[in-house]
Amino acid sequence: MGVKKVTPFQTAEEDKKDVGPLKDRGCTDIICILIFIIFLGGMGVIAYFAFTLGDPWRILNGYDSFGNTCGIKNTKPEGVTANLAGRDMTEYPYLMYFDPTVMLPDSINTLRDPTDTTPVEYTMMLCVKKCPDVSVYPITAGTGTEFYKMWSYNKYRKEGQDFCEYEFWDTYGKELAEEMDNHSTGFGISASDKFKDANYITNKGASGPCPEFVLKSDPIMNRCIPLFDELTNAAEDAGEEVTEDFVNELENKLNALLGTNVSASQVMQYAMADVMNSYREIAVMCGSSLIISFIIILLLGWIAQIMIYAISILAAVACIAGPAYFWYVWYQAKEELDKQTIKLESQVDNVQTLMIYAIIITVICVVVLLLIIFLRSRVGLMVTLFKEAGFMVMRMIVILFTPIILALFILAWAALWSFVSGYIYTAGTATDLTFTRQYAMSDQGALTDAEMNITMVYYKDHDYIIYVWLYHLFGLYWGTEFFLACHEMAIAGAFCQFYWTRDKRKVSFPVVRGIWWVFRYHLGTVAFGSCIIAIIQLIRTILAYIQNKTKDSQSEVVKYLLMCLQCCLWCFEKVMKFINRNAYIYTAFKGSNFCTSCKKVFGLLMSNLVRVGVINCVGSFILFIGKFLVVMVTGILGYFMLSKDEQIEYWAIPVLIASIFAFAVAHTFFSVYEIGIDTIFVCFAEDETKNDGTPGREYYMSKNLMQWVDNSSEALKNLKRKKGQQRAQAKAAKSGKSGEVEMSEK
């Protein structure tokens, strides 16, 4: 029988003891990676049909009430009979709403009676050459104002701004245009009743052919978003209380729809200008965050030691001072109460409450203080782990840049997903929508059928679209978690190679080898673990959707139960991510499948439960402090650079952008450090379980880590003895070789 091929990180004897990362590893969880590939194929099929049926330009540019996409040349959809469908809108890039309160992302934009779910009137949307730079606002009905709006619309049409339905002025509005051309003002027109505004504006002012009002607007994402400030001022100048109330209501609705304050658009414009003017300072702040993060990574081993012991001392002082203060307050209150001859029941209750608080705080602080005293050795292990992780990171500095590659993969995946989502969202079937318009005039008998009836176009969703969205959304979650898991296992593999190598100088290309192990052997394990997280995230998303849709009809009990369920799922997701990460670490150096790794690593963690708690609580806090320092230093630097610049109106916006970038950079660097600490700890626990430091079973851990095992003194003696023997053997071998050289010369 041949000798089993082993990695250079361990000998054949060590291989028999089942320690260290094996080179002869096999593919794990193959069925899972096959399922993942099949799933991606399903996403490809969905993308194909979405590309065939959808048109994302309808989202980007917007589309009118007749199915025409603004800014492009359209063809009439098959099966659609609307006369105004299929128009060339190349010169009409902006979408204007007759009623801005109905800017909804639905296939049909409707006005609905608040007391009824049936449509009252469908709103008109038109593509225009430019957004309105004038306002035609509602005027209180009265003498001489019945022709004002249509006269104004005709006036602005001649100036190049048409706010009415396509072809209106060339068809049944032609006679109206001729009549309005004969008057220099829209007030006091003595004309036939058929030229009144009420003949061309519907009851709700939404479905045309002309709008009830026009608001001066700015183009935002090719939509005409109203500016309310000017209209409010006009209403105040005219003393129109009704108009101002209308504007306020409209502004509130639009604010709720857009999720922002549209009246603050001018502030946002100034802020964007400040960002453009301060791009050099932003670049300096972003570059500084990289340097600061790198410096903190270099010093983290020593910083962590200082911070951990400082936190422990401060916590101990607080545990002594806190109860003492509360007992002092209780004593003072009791003294005041005893001095009073008449004691109110409320005063007695307050003193008793203070005593209860003092007792509770004392018990809690005593427990915390005892934990600090008895767990001080575990805190020392935390410090050592930080130092070991820092040492390994410095030996393979390229590992700090792996999160950048991860971010590029995730951004590419998200961009592809969003691109396909645009097609899925617009993959509806163009359908006619014919209805009768109800005009504001009392006698509608004079109107023709062409003036009363209108055929719009909407895009009807397919019946199975909800299942397509669920599949597509699950693909986003699974793919994102898959990339994250690949990164965690690759980083864990690199740290494992350092840990399980006795002579650290012999480790070569650990990061490359860690990545190779993942993509050659363990993609199935990664797909398995990431699928579990994706399923939990999908369930949480569905639950959140149900909560949002039924929030107005839920009882308090149902709301409470749904919130509890959401909280439980969140906790379950965090627990599974913790187990998954440690399972990936175990797979990285053992080559076992996902379930086996979960079982083995769970046993290791349970046998070191106190250590795990200290490492996760204290370690996470230290890493958070490190990220906080990066953001704070970057923000302070930005403040001193921009606060005195007279050209910058809102310096906080550029500083905020740079601070967000700084946090992302810090999180990127520190995530590697965090995975490294977890990996070293799992390897340490496995090393402690498999070895005992005796000859033939020496620990792989460093001297710093060896002091935290039970038989550390004996292990250190054996390690020292073994190194002495190795030096003696090397010296003897060298002497023997030199003796052979002398004999040959003689």
Give the helix level as a range of percent: 55-70%
Number of helices: 22
Q: Please list the strands of the largest sheet in the order they lie side by side.
A: 1-4
As a percent range, the share of strand residues is 5-15%
Unreliable parts: 1-17, 104-119, 140-144, 237-244, 256-266, 741-746
**Overall morphology:** extended
End-to-end separation: 46 Å
User: How many strand segments?
Assistant: 8
Main beta sheet, described? Answer: 2 strands, antiparallel
Output the radius of gyration.
37 Å
Describe what is shown at a glance.
The protein has 22 helices and eight strands. It is mainly α.
What does this structure look like?
The chain is 62% helix and 5% strand. It has 746 residues and is mainly alpha-helical.
Sum up the structure in keywords.
single chain; 746 residues; mainly alpha; two-stranded antiparallel sheet; 22 helices; 62% helix
Secondary structure elements and pairings:
Layout: H1 12-16, H2 30-53, H3 57-60, E1 94-97, E2 110-112, E3 119-122, E4 125-128, H4 148-158, H5 174-180, E5 217-220, E6 223-226, H6 228-238, H7 241-258, H8 265-277, H9 279-339, H10 345-374, H11 376-395, H12 402-425, E7 429-436, H13 449-452, E8 453-460, H14 465-499, H15 510-521, H16 523-549, H17 556-590, H18 594-607, H19 609-642, H20 652-690, H21 703-706, H22 712-745
